[in-house]
Design goal:
Blueprint (H helix, E strand, L loop, with lengths): L24 E7 L3 E10 L2 E11 L1 H4 L11 H15 L5 E6 L4 E9 L3 H12 L10 E7 L16 H8 L1 E10 H12 L4 E7 H9 L7 E6 L4 E7 L2 E8 L3 H12 L3 H10 L9 H29 L5 E5 L8 H9 L2 E4 L13 H7 L4 H11 L1
């Protein structure tokens, strides 16, 4: 995504100090509901060097079970970030931080062809049709999709010639909107830990940057989080559609807890250690877990089926990220559900690091996809 998307300039109108000094370290800060993750990178001769990384559970700071979504106060967020910076040995003073897909709005809009100057005036006006709050309360950015790469709508046989001509004269732009209050809180959090915020990015775009290459065919990206599942279709390297679903890993642990009559922490441990095991002694556990994943993946299948109908292009493969992607047996389960190639994101693959770290980084790659993507964003 880094090579193709407008996020190389996202919010640059607001944060002008975007470019870093050569060799300066940059932090990617991913503040999730169940954990905080950071990745520190340095650019050296066009290479991204991994300097340090780390993760802390938010559960301990909210006095709840590890694995649950935690709503932390601003003071607690500052505390956990300071603790993680200290424990990881991170020394960078500038950072790029994530914005949840639930706290943002991403869509594609269509407009008549016009000059860049006219477009800059037309898009904020057009955005009012989609945004449920006053435009003055949000920050927005957009990128005009290149001709031939915009996933043209599938034309029916009944489409009139005049309609075809009007479609050729139209342009499509990817619009991203974030509430100003969200950005202000994020920036203040970093300032409270002596970090300079240089940019924000909606998490799904960070994941694309770290986890995908230059594929031209549509790819379904599924981020299995603790309380929600985010999904996006990336076509020609561009996020063409995004969707969020209020189901995640926490729901699986809750169902296991109730079904097996055990506490949440024990259910969380069973989920991590057993997952979707096909062994006979684990049959009950798999039967409890499967319906939730069936629901999530059915939503995902409908999501990419709708894309195929509207654009005439089929998803070629699926990439899984997030903590839920570490569930044992999920690859086989996903292949059976989608009938497509499924893989886990290897988000550290674009970085250089000591060879002895490779096994550990491959294992945690799906969970650090956002943090890595944010840090890569800062190196550009």
């Amino acid at each position: 995504m880094a090579e193709n998307s407008f996020f190389n300039r996202f919010l640059s109108r607001i944060y002008s100090d975007l470019w870093q000094k050569k060799g300066e370290s940059i932090l990617g800060v991913d503040f999730g509901l169940s954990s905080l993750k950071i990745v520190q990178l340095r650019k050296e001769k066009e290479r991204a060097i991994l300097e340090t990384y780390g993760e802390l559970s938010t559960g301990h700071y909210a006095d709840i079970d590890v694995g649950r979504a935690a709503i932390l106060s601003e003071e607690k967020k500052t505390e956990i970030l300071k603790d993680l910076l200290r424990e990881s040995g991170a020394k960078a003073k500038t950072a790029v931080s994530s914005v949840s897909l639930k706290n943002s709005f991403v869509t594609t809009i269509e407009l008549p062809k016009m000059s860049d100057r006219d477009l800059a005036q037309a898009i904020p006006y057009e955005a009012r049709r989609y945004i449920p709050v006053p435009v003055s309360e949000v920050e927005m950015d957009w990128w005009v999709l290149p001709e031939g790469y915009s996933g043209e709508e599938k034309e029916s046989k009944e489409l009139k010639e005049s309609d075809k001509e009007s479609k050729k004269e139209a342009i499509k732009a990817l619009l991203v909107v974030i509430h100003k209050d969200v950005l202000a809180r994020q920036r203040l959090l970093l300032e409270n830990t002596d970090l300079k915020s240089i940019a924000f990015e909606v998490e799904i775009f960070s994941i694309v940057r770290s986890s995908l290459g230059r594929e031209l065919t549509p790819i379904l990206l599924i981020d299995l989080g603790v309380s929600s599942t985010k999904m996006a279709i990336v076509d020609y390297g561009i996020v063409r559609a995004a969707h969020s679903l209020d189901k995640g890993g926490q729901d699986i642990s809750d169902v296991l807890s109730h079904s097996l009559n055990i506490d949440f922490s024990r259910a969380e441990k069973i989920k991590r250690e057993t997952g979707l095991s096909d062994q006979p002694e684990h049959r009950e556990i798999k039967e409890v877990i499967s319906p939730i994943l069936d629901y999530i993946f059915s939503e995902a299948a409908s999501f990419f089926a709708d894309y195929r109908v509207r654009h005439g292009r089929s998803v070629s493969r699926v990439v899984l990220t997030g903590g839920g992607a570490l569930l044992k047996g999920i690859i086989g389960f996903s292949i059976n559900k989608f009938g497509l190639e499924v893989s886990l994101a290897d988000s550290f693959a674009k970085l250089e690091y000591p060879a002895f770290l490779e096994p550990a980084l491959k294992e945690i790659g799906p969970t650090f996809a956002t943090a890595v993507g944010l840090a890569l964003r800062g190196l550009k």
